[in-house]
């Protein structure tokens, strides 16, 4: 489930990325100040946005794997052969509510459908240490050619600065790092826990 992100650079955008207790400290300080001017119930009501932000930040931080877990998961993904990695990514997006269709040829590997929108998913260069702008430009052109709304590029490595700038300008989603480890990690854990078939 995706929640809308607050406006970039806003106080709440900063707080949801900060430790959750930062929002709780602000809520406590606000209550201490406001109770000098308002009845306690109304003073408490003024803290609700910060309490909600703190709860949301805590939930996000609880869900986000540690740096060690991220590195271990990405290392595991790099070791997978293509058939297993592509199947894992398809399953991960199915769990996110997408219908996943194979693309036999072209830059993208999968065509994703959700809520009436089409997206392209490219994950064939997942082992590359640092992705440049070239593959992203190819995926963007494929997105336009296939009349898709957006596209997702998967990598266990990092991206060059020009690639990041291009993705930001064209609104391409770069799926890597902690986000990829979280998404793929769930599928990996479930496969490990599944009983072996006899």
Describe the protein's architecture and organization.
With 198 residues, the protein is of the alpha/beta class. The chain has two domains: 11-63, no CATH class; 68-193, Trna Endonuclease, Chain: A, domain 1 (3-Layer(aba) Sandwich), CATH 3.40.1350.10. It contains nine helices and seven strands; from the N terminus they run ααααααββββαββαβα. The protein has helices at 11-17, 20-34, 40-45, 48-63, 67-79, 82-95, 133-145, 161-170, 177-193, and strands spanning 99-102, 110-114, 117-122, 130-131, 150-154, 158-159, 173-175. A five-stranded mixed beta sheet has the order 1-2-3-5-7, with helices on both faces. A two-stranded parallel ribbon has the order 4-6. A hairpin with a 2-residue loop joins β2 (110-114) and β3. α2 runs antiparallel to α4, α5 (67-79) packs across α9 and α7 (133-145) packs parallel to α8 (161-170). The longest helix has 17 residues, at 177-193. The chain is elongated, with a radius of gyration of 21 Å.
């Amino acid at each position: 489930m995706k929640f809308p992100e607050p406006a970039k650079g806003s106080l709440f955008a900063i707080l949801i990325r900060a430790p959750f207790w930062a929002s709780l400290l602000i809520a406590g300080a606000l209550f201490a100040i406001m109770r000098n001017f308002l009845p306690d119930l109304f003073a408490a009501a003024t803290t609700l946005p910060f309490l909600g932000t703190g709860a949301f930040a805590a939930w996000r931080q609880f869900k986000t794997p540690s740096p060690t877990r991220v590195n271990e998961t990405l290392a595991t993904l790099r070791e997978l052969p293509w058939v297993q990695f592509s199947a894992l990514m398809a399953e991960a997006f199915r769990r996110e509510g997408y219908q996943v269709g194979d693309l036999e040829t072209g830059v993208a590997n999968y065509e994703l459908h959700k809520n009436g929108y089409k997206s392209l998913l490219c994950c064939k260069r997942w082992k590359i240490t640092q992705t440049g702008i070239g593959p992203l430009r190819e995926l963007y052109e494929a997105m336009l050619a296939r009349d898709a709304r957006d596209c997702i590029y998967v990598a266990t490595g990092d991206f060059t600065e020009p690639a990041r700038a291009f993705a930001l300008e064209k609104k391409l989603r770069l799926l890597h790092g902690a986000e990829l480890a979280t998404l793929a990690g769930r599928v990996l854990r479930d496969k490990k826990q599944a009983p072996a078939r006899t």
